[in-house]
Amino acid sequence: MPEPTPTPPADTPPPGSIRLAPGVRIDEGKLTFVTSRSSGPGGQNVNKRETKVELRVSIDDIPLKPDARARLKRLAGSRLTDEGILQITAEDTRSQRRNRELTVARLAELVAKALTRPARRVRTKPTKGSIRRRLDEKTRRGQRKAERSRNKGRGHDE
């Protein structure tokens, strides 16, 4: 009797897709990788191998809710083109494969940040002491200005 094929864990992405965050997967075909020669030291390989990797993906191809998509656009900053293409580069290592993995990891990190809602600021009431100090300072400032107007016309050389 043949053994049953093992089922992959529930969070394993299906073949051909990449897991960016819990519940967010993108088809590998939607990602475009462009390679070029990397800057910096590289010894004998520097002018021969294209190890710099640039990942390009349309922000609309990433399955996100509208509020998360807006946060992603804000987080992307200058990495987002006018056409809505997100560009992430890596030239950290001498390995093209590793730089490719780094770009995907950076995309996943960006998506994970976009998924987390910013904590709402809890307004706090000023303390009685701080209110009293502010009002005392205002009173002193007003008295100082009133004193100046009373002394108007009286010079310092008298």
From TrEMBL:
InterPro entries: Pep_chain_release_fac_I
Listed Basic and acidic residues bias regions: 133-158
Superkingdom of the organism of origin: Eukaryota
Ranges for domain Prokaryotic-type class I peptide chain release factors: 37-53
Any GO molecular function: peptidyl-tRNA hydrolase activity
Spans through the membrane: none
Protein name: ArfB protein
